[in-house]
């Protein structure tokens, strides 16, 4: 099952600080819902473990996250893939853009993702609702971290 999600959030912080925090594994770990581990593996990679619950399906996903197309202070592409055992798999990528606006930074994102296994059997509406909730929670946490 494939899904697409777009959004933006106005952050009350300068673009330099937003960029720095988007590249800080401790900040990302604290902001990602359900994240149990996030370790830097190289300049553009991380190993991650996160516990997620989507409807009646709960799973612990292990995977990797890679940063690419780095354009300091302007944005990057973040890609990831994870395995959740019998619950299935998830993989996707997000293009993140930063623009100075109204005394702060406008962060916009475009996500393309795919899921399979039991998760994909739950239905598009439940998956999309959960994905939107997780994105909103991440950005609320990130705004507080700034």
Describe this structure in words.
The structure is a single chain. The chain is α+β, with helices and mostly antiparallel strands and 146 residues long. The protein contains 3 helices and 7 strands, in the order βααββββββα. The chain has helices at 15-22, 25-31, 124-145; strands at residues 2-11, 35-42, 45-54, 57-71, 75-83, 89-101, 104-116. It has a 7-stranded antiparallel beta sheet, with helices on one face. Helix 2 (25-31) crosses helix 3 (124-145). The chain is globular. The termini are far apart. The mean pLDDT is 90.
Task: Give the gist of this structure.
The protein is of the alpha+beta class and 146 residues long.
Question: What are the defining features of this structure?
Answer:
146 residues, alpha+beta, 3 helices
